[in-house]
Design a protein that fits this description.
globular; 15 helices; binds guanine; binds zinc ion
């Protein structure tokens, strides 16, 4: 075998952690190694075993004492919003109308889109995010530049142009037919090209007419291989308006259900204020609720009820995501830190082990991509992070009192950011800008 061996403290999840026996959910090797070759993980285990089974002269990259873990996964963010992060507004709909719908019009320019795509992927990689599910703007060319840049970097990305044909400026509107045609063409070009996946993306019920919702349902039916991504139940005014626009539907979730948009490949950003009936519908359909803590706090949208959705009567699959640019950080570490606090406020527990599970294997499972990404098992894609819990002086000082792996993970989550990510391997290639 050729390729190279990465040596470090390996941490790889096997299953969802269960309180009381969390250590059964992962494998940790103090002197571990990952053998990567041709973009794939060939072997993981103790350094001694992995080295013994490789060629004598194989290259060894020594990352000790850092942790090697699967790349972080961000299952909901907006590529055209990177220049409006932290825009001051009282609530979601004001924020959308004042900043977002103005900013996204710039993506009619391929040149602008290409420039932002390049810096966007640099930021994701710097922060350790190797896979994301991204909304592009309404413009077909915004998705073209997104996928072209991702493909050039050999990243596993999910993306889609948003479809929106009402309640937004003219410069951001498509039509049911053009949204359908552009989506079809993008699927044809990009879904399955290298590591690219397409997400059929009706932005949310408020910006799509019933005719466009029908077209979205048709696309989902014609392309079961693709994801569906949209927004659901984020804010009180948004919910009221959505229900007013679709009076024949029982509630917000039922709008998507009536157009055939629920299902195991459907990602519903926010899902904060769901009724028991809606939770049951999400659960039965295998749909995914995506928790976006920094965004939900920033826009004052509400507290996601993780415990009820995950472990209630009707369990729902969950992802945790940044929601850039309603979200305020690219960092999945910071995002988990805020998730922890949102859960604290509700008397719920997010343990450090569960956090690191969630942002790797948990989010991979939410995307149904756990056979490709999210852990260090042989056969997985070699998207691997090198994490340094002593990355800053404040972290180093804190680390002086740390004695367990769990504590170390919690320090990285609470005090960490892009500096904690020492290196990022994408399909086996060292890729952190400036590292
Ligand atoms: N709902 C519809 N569009 C958006 C968006 O861009 N961001 C957020 N947070 N919610 C939305
Ligand atoms: Zn969003």
């Amino acid at each position: 075998m050729t390729g190279k061996i990465l040596r470090g403290r390996t941490l790889s999840f096997l299953s969802e952690p269960v309180l009381g026996s969390e250590s059964d959910s992962y494998v940790y090797e103090e002197d571990g190694a990952v053998h990567v070759d041709d973009g794939i993980i060939k072997a993981t285990g103790s350094y001694a075993d992995v080295k013994l089974n490789a060629l004598d002269n194989i290259e060894v990259v020594d990352h000790r004492p850092y942790i090697l873990i699967a790349g972080f996964i961000d299952p909901h963010l907006h590529f055209p919003q990177v220049q409006i992060i932290g825009s001051y507004a009282p609530d979601l709909l004001t924020w959308l109308n004042t900043y977002t719908f103005v900013e996204e019009q710039k993506f009619g320019s391929t040149e602008h889109g290409a420039r932002i795509a390049s810096v966007f992927f640099d930021e994701l990689i710097k922060h350790g995010t190797t896979t994301a599910a991204a909304y592009c703007s309404v413009h077909k060319q915004s998705a073209e530049v997104f996928f072209a840049e991702s493909h050039r970097r050999n990243m596993l990305m999910i993306g889609g142009k948003v479809m929106m044909d009402r309640n937004a400026p003219v410069g951001l509107l498509d039509t049911p037919q053009s949204g359908y045609d552009d989506t079809k063409a993008l699927i044809e070009t990009w879904h399955g090209t290298g590591r690219q996946h397409y997400a059929i993306s009706p932005r949310f019920a408020i910006t799509s007419t019933p005719a466009q919702m029908e077209m979205s349902g048709a696309l989902a039916q014609e392309h079961p291989e693709c994801f569906v991504q949209t927004h659901l139940s984020e804010n009180a005014n948004e919910i009221a308006l959505a229900c007013e626009l679709f009076p024949q539907c029982k509630d917000y979730t039922d709008i998507y259900a009536q157009y055939g948009l629920l299902g195991p490949k459907s990602l519903f950003g926010h899902s904060i204020h769901l009724s028991d009936r809606e939770i049951a519908a999400m659960s039965e359909s295998g749909s995914v609720a995506v928790f976006c803590p920094t965004s939900n706090l920033f826009l004052g949208s509400g507290l996601f009820n993780f415990e009820k959705l995950r472990n209630g009567k009707h369990p729902v699959r969950i992802g945790v995501a940044t929601d850039i640019g309603g979200g305020t950080s690219y960092s999945m570490l910071k995002t988990l830190d805020e998730a922890f606090k949102v859960m604290q406020l509700q008397g719920q527990r997010l343990t450090p082990v569960y956090s690191f599970y969630q942002t790797t294997l948990g989010n991979a499972c939410a995307l149904g991509l756990e056979d490709r990404i999210g852990n260090l098992s042989p056969g997985s894609d070699a998207d691997i992070l090198v994490l340094d819990a002593n990355a800053t002086s404040a972290m180093s000082l804190r680390m002086e009192t740390v004695s367990t792996l769990e504590e170390e993970l919690f320090v990285m989550q609470t005090l960490g950011d892009d500096r904690t990510v020492a290196e990022v391997y994408i399909a086996g290639e060292a890729s952190k800008p400036g590292a």
